[in-house]
Amino acid sequence: MLLAQVYLQRATREFDQLYSYLVPEELSPQLAVGSLVSVPFGRGNSERQAWVAALAEAGENKLADQDFTLKSIGSILAPPLLREDQFLLAQEMRRRYFCSISQALNLMAPQVLLSTGAKTQRYAYLTDPDEAVDLLEEGSLRSMGQVRVLEFLLEVEEASLQEIMAACGVSRSVLDTLRKKGLIANYNKEVARETVSREIVEAEKSVPILNSGQAEALASLLETNSDTGKAGSEYLLFGVTGSGKTEVYLRAAEQVLGQGKDVLILVPEISLTPLICDRIESRFGQNAAVLHSRLSPGERYDQWQSIRSGQKHLVAGARSAVFAPLKDIGLIVIDEEQEASYKSERTPRYDSLDVARIRSRMHGSKLLLASATPSVESYYRSQTGRAKLLTLSQRAGGASLPHCEVVDMRKEMAFDPATVISRPLKDALAETFARKEQAMIFLNRRGNASFRLCQDCGYIHKCSNCEVSMTDHLNPHQPQQHLLICHYCGKIEKAPTVCPACGSEHFGPYGLGTQQAERVLQELFPEQKILRMDLDTTSGRFGHSKILGAFARKEADLLVGTQMIAKGHDFPDVTTVGILAADLMLGQTDYLAEERCFQLLAQAAGRAGRRGQTGQVLIQSFNPENFVIQAALRQDYQAFYEEEIRKRRVLAYPPFRDLGVVTISSHSQSSARYVARQLESELRYLVEKNKLGQQLSYFSAQPAPIPRLRKRWRYRLLLKSPSRELLTRCLNYLNQLKIPEQVSVACDINPKHWA
Ligand code: ADP
Ligand code: ZN
Ligand code: ZN
What we know:
7-stranded parallel beta sheet; 32% helix; binds adenosine-5'-diphosphate
């Protein structure tokens, strides 16, 4: 008799464990570890979905326990989607990321469950497109989520709910609200499973011959470790943009595939890195599964299945692709390893680098991190022997580094206090356009202005759901109209024209955003065509590629945008890059601000002159002497690193200490505060009882940096320790304490976003 051990697919904490079931004779041939099954559960035998984690013959294993009162599995819902080692990974994730096994497993088979076996899908369409246009023009919708959905449906007419949620970044409740308002309607659409084959990408014309630096890096990467006879583990491939890092890891991937092993390549965000995906598809063809974030659920399911069944041996994708069910991984590559998007900010709060390290240990594979501006933590690993540093020191195609200069905005403001574009930048742009070349202007803040302020009484308009100021936007559907938008909860209000506090008319927008920069630039250069790219212009199905494509085809002379334009795109005719308000990023208070600023400045600068011509970069700053600006100016990572690591050591920040953050939140301020204090005293007790004072420090419970978010009050406990293991254990202890239902507790280690 065959027995199966299963995890429930949606288990509360109490039921987050293995359960044994009998396997009926007729199911046993198809059943395998990783199958999704339906089981009767609990006293009422209600039907539940579950993952098969292990199989054993009765009597063979102590799990069998001769228990013939066991219930039987009802049916098989889906063929195997997970592999055995992924259940071990899920157990490890529960411990490290304070989640349940079922939450971890759901990450590993994303969206699949929703579409298993379904012949129809829920679709939505606009009941009255004209009314949608009216509402957008009036600016009378109350949330950004609703705006994005209407804009999306105006563009594509109809789409599955899954696709809308993914494309617009909204939850189901936004769709429900729109349906209740009568703006959208749903129906069930028959869906034939789309086949995965996409348009065949043209094969790369020629594969370059590696230069000596690349050849050396590739050789050390592929070398087996002579001490252990095993493949060595972690590498950091460090080289400026264009130094040929991608070429090196694609070659390594070819070799590893040639040895019959699998390869996993992680890239930050597929929509922002179309080039690399094309390169992978054209080089590896049918052997590669590229997991685009906008695959339909059916396509994603098919891709996953083809990976699990061993048809695909190379997987490329964003953060969650780290869970792809490959069988025998020989190489894991993490491109742009410094990117914050590798860290999930939702439960389970995992870090893909961390998960990749666990998987590479489980599979005995190599782990390669690649970056032009490595995170301080990763570079530190390479300096302390935990990773091997591979350096590429010149640009591969022979292009030279751009000429960088800083513009002192204190002088520019003294000349004209309303300066947005400094005189040197204006001149540089004019010359660029005269030569029929292209330029990019980078500003890391979207919207028209950062906030609205009253000059008479100092009132700043804040969101009623969150303790943050609302951002001033021009309504894209009605450019005369100013809207105030909360960038945290998406709430929209029409901007008041007089101060709501004192009635003064001196109530206006302050602080430059991309919309305003675009307008100012258009006034300066009325002849030039300007495109803008930020979150507000890219919500449609192909928003990114439309703008990038138009710019690449030289349909515009200038691209203005947020960090989205700083990354990965290769525009050979861009010779001038301007960076506005570089200091904005330094103004943030968390310990990662300098690192983020350096990375963005260096990346933005790297956009200039990628081929042929030498580019120029102008950085506008009020702190031209700041070490971050100075290092970025000279494209000197080393100088930045030395100063930054010194600071981290002195202030006891990562990589010298790990930071544990416990966020306690509730609609009731008093409940949140009460639980926060309670956890603090539990922690104090734990530390005193076990004499942990030497290895663990903590700070008393405080309101979080954003003390109220989406109507929830938030408090925070901060822990510091040189031992990740100790920190993990303490957080697990706090996480399992019983707390009132209306309060939620979230634990995280080294978060990338501090809110
Ligand atoms: P990175 O990943 O460091 O930005 P890439 O590998 O994308 O660098 O290389 C940048 C450009 O140089 C690409 O167009 C690539 O095809 C080209 N390239 C890479 N290696 C070589 C080489 N050895 N010889 C000539 N061109 C190369
Ligand atoms: Zn006022
Ligand atoms: Zn808000």
